[in-house]
Amino acid sequence: MTDEEPIDREQVNRYRASLQDELNGVALYEGLAEAETNPQIATVYRRLAGVEQSHANTWLQRLRAAGAEPPRFGLSFRTRMLIWLAKRFGVGTVLPSISSLEQVDSRKYGQQKDADTLARDEQSHARLLNAITQSKSGELDGSAVAQIEGRHRTGGNALRAAVLGANDGLVSNLSLVMGVAGAELSPGAILVTGFAGLLAGACSMALGEWLSVQSSRELYERQIGIEKQEIAAAPKEEAEELALIYQGRGIPEQQARELASRILQDQASALDTLSREELGIDPKELGGSAYEAAITSFLLFAAGAIVPVIPFIFFHGITAAILSLVLSTFGLFVIGAGTTLFTGRTLLFSGTRSVAFGLAAAAVTFGIGRLIGARVAG
């Protein structure tokens, strides 16, 4: 593209939006570097911040070439929340969400003819491994490589589960409460139904989560035990297998073999790395605590489910029903906004979509309750 070619308003707006996205990426990776306790991995995040800054410079240059002013930069809600969560609960909490957002950016740039290089850069895992293997500030060992990759696979699904768990509780209990309210049951009956739905749903979620996590832990322990036996019995074969994994991720063959050989010299490090790379398992977590997962699921579901019930504690009739809908609408919007952390959508879109689906479900059950209540009364 030359300076003489006309640039329309749509292009200028796209350049500005892309510049904002990349500057938010710089701030996000710098925030991860500050929150990261492993200095080697923190170095990688700083290098990734540098890549994002180079992308931002690209869009800034194109804006200047078009004679357009760059936008006034401000951190987005999503970036602020991800940085806060990383500093408060650990980087592993947000990595899967960030990985998803990078894939969104990759597809977005892939549709732009003038951003094919940026699209390739946004391929998160390949770029991450290149940053590790080509780091000028010091070579990372294999366990650090595996730790980052393992976090992408297993470290942060709790964030998604938290948002969806609260959403399940709110939508299901709102639908239940609106159903019995539509049937015009007594205030006491509506309140008992709401709390019964809360307890039943929360207990069901907790039990299901406990069984899921505990079964996974038992499976992981068995797989790690087998891997440990294989390392002791055939270390050369395991080194070859690990080297092939690294080669498949873009590391040159000789460098991959040297890295794998160093890792296999220490059986503890080898088991940790192979568990992460080959099995996709974090040996230190094994999928997390089953009891912690159960309690968390119970509390998250209950937190969402209590929202539509609260007005019925203090009010009755149509007043309680309207307040329940208003409070639930607010809760649904907040939860929908939370999904932007891993979908990349705007706050307005995600919040409005969550509200629309939740209220639609409530309207259906209210109508069914009104129909059944009328027939019973008749």
Summary, kept brief:
This protein is mainly alpha-helical and 378 residues long.
- Oligomer status: single chain
Largest sheet: none
The number of distinct structural domains comes to 2
Q: Give the SSE order as H and E letters.
A: HHHHHHHHHHHHHHHHH
Please report the total strand number as a whole number: 0
| Number of H- or I-type helical stretches | 17
Helix content: over 70%
Gap from first CA to last CA:
75 Å
Rough shape?
A: flat
Strand content: under 5%
Based on CA atoms alone, the radius of gyration comes out at 26 Å
What is the averaged pLDDT score? 79
Based on secondary structure, the structural category is mainly alpha
Low-confidence stretches: 129-139, 152-156
Task: Describe the fold and architecture.
- The structure is a single chain.
- By secondary structure, this protein is mainly alpha-helical.
- It has two domains: 9-140, Ferritin (Up-down Bundle); 153-377, no CATH class.
- Helices cover 80% and strands 0% of the residues.
- The protein has helices spanning 9-35, 39-65, 77-89, 95-110, 116-121, 124-133, 142-155, 157-182, 187-233, 235-248, 253-264, 267-277, 290-305, 310-314, 317-338, 340-343, 347-377.
- Helix 8 (157-182) runs parallel beside helix 13 (290-305), helix 10 (235-248) crosses helix 11 (253-264) and helix 15 packs antiparallel against helix 17 (347-377).
Secondary-structure topology with pairs:
Layout (H helix, E strand, L loop, with lengths): L8 H27 L3 H27 L11 H13 L5 H16 L5 H6 L2 H10 L8 H14 L1 H26 L4 H47 L1 H14 L4 H12 L2 H11 L12 H16 L4 H5 L2 H22 L1 H4 L3 H31 L1
Helix pairs in contact: 1-2, 1-3, 2-6, 7-12, 8-9, 8-13, 8-15, 8-17, 9-10, 9-12, 9-13, 10-11, 15-17
